[in-house]
Amino acid sequence: MLINEALTARAIEPHEDDPIWAVVEHAVGFPTPAKMAEVRRQYLSAERRLVAFEINGVLVGALGFEEAAPKDAIMEHIAVAVSARGQGVGRDIVRWLCSQGFAALRAETHADAVGFYERCGFEVERFVDGRFPDTARFRCVLWC
Questions:
Q1: CATH number for the domain harbouring residue 108
Q2: Which range of residues forms the domain containing residue 83?
Q3: Torsion sign over Cα 86, 61, 118, 42
Q4: pLDDT digit string (tens) for 15-41?
Q5: How many structural domains does the chain have?
Q6: What is the mean pLDDT of the chain?
Q7: CB–CB of 73/65 below 8 Å?
Q8: Does 2 fall in a domain?
Q9: Considering the domain boundaries, does residue 1 fall inside one?
Q10: What are the helix (H) ranges across 1-144?
Q11: Per-residue confidence at 12, pLDDT binned at 50, 70, 90?
């Protein structure tokens, strides 16, 4: 059950000036213009899906994910607009994704965000990421 009953999901075909990028940017570490251009390019591929979440027509969240091994979703980006934080929107986005028929949701994150995943019920495991050897990274799995 959703906390925000008015929350609606809308799959989008992203374009350069879509307002969703201002929300997605919150989920991108050190979002330089070049890095955001790469993120936008990745969502033009057939594998990645981008979903906008709205309450009463106002954009409050974004979710980017890929369908993976049988019935798994890899969460690439999850973000909530600053004005909607602390209202359960992020948790509802996770619940929505589980309701789409996936057996498991998977994500990788850093120490600043791992608490969100734990509060949503994800199993969390610390690992060393060769790309960021001095940064705490975590693999997160939620069985839907």
A1: 3.40.630.30
A2: 7-143
A3: negative
A4: 767 888 899 998 888 889 999 988 888
A5: 1
A6: 89
A7: yes
A8: no
A9: no
A10: 20-24, 33-42, 89-98, 114-119
A11: confident
